[in-house]
Amino acid sequence: MTMSEKILAKASNKSSCEAGEIVMANIDVAMTHDLTGPLSVESFEKIGTEKVWDPSKIVIPFDHQVPADSLDAANNHIIMREFVKKQGIKNFYDVNEGVCHQILPELGHVVPGEVIVGTDSHTCTHGALGAFATGIGSTDMAMVFSTGQLWFKVPETIRFNIEGTLKKNVYAKDVILNIIGHVGADGATYKACEFAGSTVSNMTVSDRMVLCNMAIEMGGKTGLVEPDEKTLNYVKARSNKPYEVFKTDLDSSSLEIMDIDVDNLEPQVACPHNVDNVKPVSEVGVEIDQVFLGSCTNGRISDLRQAAKILKGNKIANGVRMLVIPASKEVYTKALNEGLISTFVDSGALVCNPCCGPCLGGHVGLIGPGEVSLSTSNRNFKGRQGSPEGKVYLSSAAVAAASAIKGRIVAPE
What digits encode the pLDDT tens for the residues 330-383? Predict the structure, then answer.
């Protein structure tokens, strides 16, 4: 069996299962946040269940609109705070902790072999630690709150076997953008996307989270990396939960393997208005109005270090505004202690509190009609970061920093 089949078989108390089968799985972690949570709460109350199935397995962070930027957002926060209090939810993180997909692993909620659901499509990020993690709808989450279970169709698996040594200034973001560009936005629809090979083995856990985070952008049901020593060291340092490591049998009948060579890969950019519209940075060169460094894709300390190294001693170009939004309080504190925040401020960037920022087009730093944003986030759909007449490009942190200095999309020199 594949990793996904093994994890879902265990979660549904079966000895085995296969792709295409419907299983009813026990949920280990259920996450909802300030934007999608209120609908889950409303649906849960309509069901009529008095108490959630297990308040210790529900995680509720505020991250999308924090601090509240409108009366609607403030009301959503009130709804969720009242729900947390009424249900005795133990893992509630108010407005200062960070982006949900960053803080769940950081705070020890994610371990290998679990089934994790969240009312956010990028919940697949957590597969970087060897869990089966996927986004679900708010009404589905109401059923999870009520029963602790959810049905799944067991997915087929596509395993990206990535080999080669990345050049200087080429990172995991470039690898995954390149894959999405080749596979297409629907090329892995409802498949578990495994990332393997020597390139992935050499990556940090943070880098692997970038790959898994964007599995959804090619239609994937989840993203996964087999746990290794790096994974287990990360988990042991942050969690005391029991876990079980699963790995894919390469003779699994539902497994497709795609070989990818990254030796000659150059920095990649996703161009408007689709994530699979990917080009080498040398073919872009577009002038920009805003740079966003952050999000659940590239707001980690490694990303901030890459950007600060390029920005140090340089100034952001006239006419360009740059937003730097660390993905969590932990990342923010590390950046502060390492002097990275000073580097950003000295270069002319605006540093914001840990949150989703402009990624969802809902809060902090939207673009106006005709404006161009270069973002380290994961989606560039029309209107995603503000005006439908604006344009959003996606890149790594290094390309974002270099472009902020030049005023147009360029590779780091």
Answer: 999 999 999 999 999 999 999 998 887 887 877 788 889 999 999 999 888 777
SS3 of the chain: CCHHHHHHHHHCCCCCCCCCCEEEEECCEEECCCCCHHHHHHHHHHHCCCCCCCHHHEEEECCCCCCCCCHHHHHHHHHHHHHHHHHCCCEEECCCCECHHHHHHHCCCCCCCCEEEECCHHHHHHHHHCCEEEECCHHHHHHHHHHCEEEEECCCEEEEEEECCCCCCCCHHHHHHHHHHHHCCCCCCCCEEEEECHHHHCCCHHHHHHHHHCHHHHCCCEEECCCCHHHHHHHHHHCCCCCCCCCCCCCCCCEEEEEEECCCCCCEEECCCCCCCEEEHHHCCCECCEEEEEHHHHCCHHHHHHHHHHHCCCCCCCCCEEEEECCEHHHHHHHHHCCHHHHHHHHCCEECCCCCHHHHCCCCCCECCCCEEEECCCCCCCCCCECCCCEEEECCHHHHHHHHHHCECCCCC
The model's pTM is 0.91
Residues in the annotated binding site for [4Fe-4S] cluster: 296, 356, 359
User: Which residues make up each annotated binding site?
Assistant: 296, 356, 359
- Sorted by where each starts, the structural domains of the chain and their CATH numbers stand as 3-259 (3.30.499.10), 268-406 (3.30.499.10)
